[in-house]
Amino acid sequence: MNKNTNKWQNASQKAHRTARWAKTMTKWLISKKNEGGAKWHVVNFVGSSNSESRGIVDLLAIRKDHRTNDSKIKRGDLFDVVLIQVKGGSAPFPTTEDIARLKEVSKYHRAKAIVLSEWKPQKRLQLHLLKRNKWIQIKPNEIF
Fold first, then answer.
1. Domain 3-142 class?
2. Closest Cα partner for 75 from 62, 87, 65?
3. Is the pLDDT of residue 141 over 60?
4. Contact 116, 93 (CB under 8 A)
5. Which ranges of the chain would DSSP assign to H, the alpha helix?
6. In whole angstroms, what is the distance from residue 61 CA to residue 75 CA?
7. Is-contact 42 31, C-beta < 8 A?
8. Of 78, 81, 82, the residue nearest 68 (C-alpha)
9. What's the whole-model pTM score?
10. Domain boundaries, the chain
């Protein structure tokens, strides 16, 4: 194995580890914010050998919506859904094309919000809400 191949394998392993930590930290933050009301559950989409899977959404936060109450739909029948894309380390923010895809997926699933979670080693996790094609930094309790 040559020196360049080893260098790329090490970089790939580091990126994979950082991505896993970014997801772990995001799930931890959401579960920590489950103070009152319906509890948020986080679905992690992973591919083979626990690597990233295809698709624009990395995590899905879901909880029961207990506000609805009419003759056809009872309380707890509906869900609040938040789509989450996770970035770790030096990964760039989503492109314009990525944002368009996220918005289409959100519309299809009637998501409450699209959130970008950004985690860098030894730094605090940052959450950003997509509003009119711009990422606005938010506090976790503004969504979760």
1. alpha beta
2. 65
3. yes
4. yes
5. 3-32, 96-109
6. 19
7. yes
8. 78
9. 0.84
10. 3-142
